[in-house]
Design goal:
Largest sheet: none
């Protein structure tokens, strides 16, 4: 099946856009449950406030930091971080439908969901981490290989979350 142009998503019926949003929210929630389990196991994870701080500083023209953890805190950064986190999850669900085609919503399969999930690791590796001071693909962190592997696993979990969320919505139809 050929993929529709991205703007075609805007022409889809409202219910389909809502379906995509629910898949993105569901996949992001599954990722968050995974991250919560990691934290409980003693594995460090990035605070959502840092994402909010990074985005808030963009409004003032600052797009890159030597260390986002050392950048001045911004009022409401935690809430902003969570909102951005979920908005990105929805955007990635839309990307999945653009790549796999709208028919995927009717017959979800694991390959496109997990493939898109894993491919989304490119965003933190080449945009977020360098802009937050961690370097390309966590190259400036204390354990780059370990962080890259953790990033890949997290994005795999997000991809599984895309599939699970789509299957749950399909079952509820």
């Amino acid at each position: 099946m050929t993929s529709p142009p991205p703007l075609l998503l805007l022409a889809l019926p409202r219910g389909v856009l809502g379906h995509i949003a629910l898949i993105g929210v569901g996949a992001t929630a599954i990722l968050d449950l995974w991250l919560m389990a990691l934290r409980r196991a003693g594995v460090p994870t990035q605070p959502m406030a840092w994402i909010g701080r990074w985005v808030a500083h963009m409004a003032h023209g600052r797009f890159a930091h030597a260390s986002i953890g050392q950048a001045p805190a911004v009022r409401g950064e935690a809430l902003l971080g969570w909102l951005v986190h979920y908005a990105v999850g929805i955007a990635f669900a839309a990307l999945l439908v653009v790549i796999a085609g709208p028919g995927w919503l009717l017959a979800p399969s694991w390959e496109p969901a997990v493939g898109v999930g894993i491919a989304t690791v490119l965003m933190p590796w080449f945009v977020m981490q360098p802009a937050m001071g961690a370097g390309v693909a966590a190259s400036r962190t204390a354990a780059p290989f370990q962080n890259r592997l953790r990033n890949l696993v997290n994005h795999f979990v997000f991809g599984v979350g895309l599939l699970v969320s789509a299957l749950v919505l399909q079952a509820l139809r």
